[in-house]
Design brief:
Layout (H helix, E strand, L loop, with lengths): L10 E5 L2 E6 L2 H9 L10 H5 L13 H14 L2 H6 L1 H22 L2 E2 H18 L10 H18 L19 H24 L12 H7 L8 H32 L1 H14 L8 H4 L3 H13 L10 E2 L4 E2 L5 E2 L4 E4 L1 H5 L45 H18 E5 L9 E3 L3 E3 L4 E6 L3
Parallel strand pairs: 2-7
Antiparallel strand pairs: 1-2, 3-11, 4-7, 5-6, 8-11, 9-10
Helix pairs in contact: 5-6, 5-15, 6-10, 7-8, 8-10, 10-13, 10-15
Length: 440
């Protein structure tokens, strides 16, 4: 719509009583995302009811948010912490590969998403809670966890008219969002507070590298101390921000590799040359793979997880832009990252999957927020704090999947790249494929 009105730099519109602007221009996007007057986010009614207003993603800019950000970047997402959890991620990846091989043997094809989501959930639970769930046995605790996470995703991803017409919630709520939020919160509190209780009475002599995020939060003192309700909100959000995103991005990557077998072959060849320990790939090996990095970047470009940078920004003052336009206070601002990453003025053949566009120093694009041509994790103060952990996890999974299997299209269930926007932009139809085991 913005391009049809020649409004790529900035287009204003209203969602009910919510004034909003959207930009498809990298310069304006940088001004918005890095402005101190856009350091807060609008909070959805469902997010508020589900306690996220006290967590990193939705908490307004201020001392509380800065404290949470500092704790997360220092104790959960620091490079040393990511490295310390490599063993757990390798273990979870091995379990995923085993499950995939078993399903391929029994059925002759694999539905990848369920394996990726199970591995993703377990990885984040290990890092945050120090717990691993056996997703193949479907015990009561695992079932309860999965139900809570899926319900939360549905509620946060659903379009809710009361976010833009507050008075309507009193008589029109077709998806029963308010009722379902009220029902979900006690279940979340019960689950997480029980795990916190286990940690309070558990082993207090863990080494620093073995500590999970709950251990860290319980060890904080002084002005960094969080009360239990704030801890629940932070931990609950960590499950959300770390679960589906990595699984869905990996699914998009594998779909493109299946549709582009030459690219898959090139990637496999590079990974084989890098494997240093009897063919076992480590994070250190994977970090030396420029082609894998290019494949991940190209997938993020072609299928950005949040096409409108879903976590929008809210202006806290009138903002004067370099083009002379003014964005008024209390305006929701969004960046159309899909339009930017598909702009033929920026990218040659933008609809073609071509990882080679990111090879070489001249073509090096940093996806972590410094280059607005490709900023899938946002930029500025509100850039995703878990981006490095997410990229490390996705890179490991893709490397292991390609190293252990040759992936081809299932003729009866062909790859469909149709998109569906929920919390993230995901494949509308889950990916089915045939995984042919490679010789050791």
């Amino acid at each position: 719509m913005a391009s049809s009105y020649a409004a790529n730099k900035l287009m204003a519109f209203s969602l009910g009583s919510t004034p909003a602007v959207v930009t498809s221009d990298t310069c304006i996007a940088r001004e918005i995302l890095t402005s101190p007057h856009f350091a807060s986010r609008p909070i959805k009614e469902s997010a508020k009811q589900l306690m996220f207003s006290r967590a990193i993603g939705f908490a307004p800019d201020g001392p509380h948010w800065r404290m949470l950000r500092r704790i997360a970047s220092t104790h959960l997402f620091a490079p040393k912490r990511i490295l310390a959890h490599e063993g757990a991620r390798q273990l979870e990846c091995a379990a995923m590969l085993s499950g995939i091989a078993k399903e391929q043997s029994l059925q002759g094809y694999v539905q990848l998403r369920k394996h990726l989501q199970a591995a993703s959930l377990n990885s984040i639970m290990e890092i945050v809670f120090g717990k691993r769930y056996n997703t193949t046995k479907h015990d009561n605790e695992t079932k309860k966890l999965n139900e809570i996470v899926r319900e939360g995703f549905e509620l946060l991803g659903a379009f809710n008219w009361s976010d833009h017409l507050p008075w309507i919630k009193y008589f029109y709520d077709p998806f029963r969002i308010q009722e379902r939020c009220v029902a979900l919160v006690p279940r979340v509190n019960g689950l997480i507070k029980e795990i916190i209780k286990e940690h309070r009475h558990g082993n207090s002599n863990k080494s620093r590298d073995k500590c999970d995020f709950i251990d860290v939060l319980l060890s904080l003192d002084g002005e960094d101390t969080l009360d239990e309700d704030d801890m629940v909100a932070v931990l609950w959000e960590m499950i959300f921000r770390g679960t589906d995103t990595t699984a869905l991005l990996t699914e998009w990557i594998m779909a493109e590799l299946i549709l582009n077998p030459k690219i898959q072959k090139t990637l496999h060849s590079e990974l084989q040359n890098l494997a240093s320990n009897g063919g076992f790939l480590t994070d250190a090996d994977i970090a030396k793979s420029p082609y894998l990095e290019a494949v991940v970047k190209e997938t993020l470009r072609l299928h950005p997880p949040g096409p409108l940078l879903s976590w929008a920004r809210l202006s806290t003052a009138d903002v004067h832009l370099s083009n002379g336009m003014i964005i008024p206070t209390n305006t929701t601002a969004m960046v159309n990252m899909w339009a930017i990453t598909h702009d033929p003025k920026i990218w040659n053949d933008p609809l073609v999957f071509r990882p080679e566009r990111f090879l070489g120093s001249v073509n090096n694009v940093d996806v972590r927020g410094s280059d607005l041509r490709l900023a899938p994790f946002g930029a500025g103060r509100r850039v995703c704090p878990g981006k490095n952990l997410g990229l490390a996890t996705v890179s490991l999974w893709v490397a292991k999947l390609v190293q252990n299997f040759e992936w081809v299209e299932d003729c009866e269930r062909p790859v469909d790249l149709s998109e569906e926007l929920k919390l993230s932009c995901e494949m509308k139809k889950p990916l089915f494929a045939v995984g042919i085991s490679r010789p050791n």
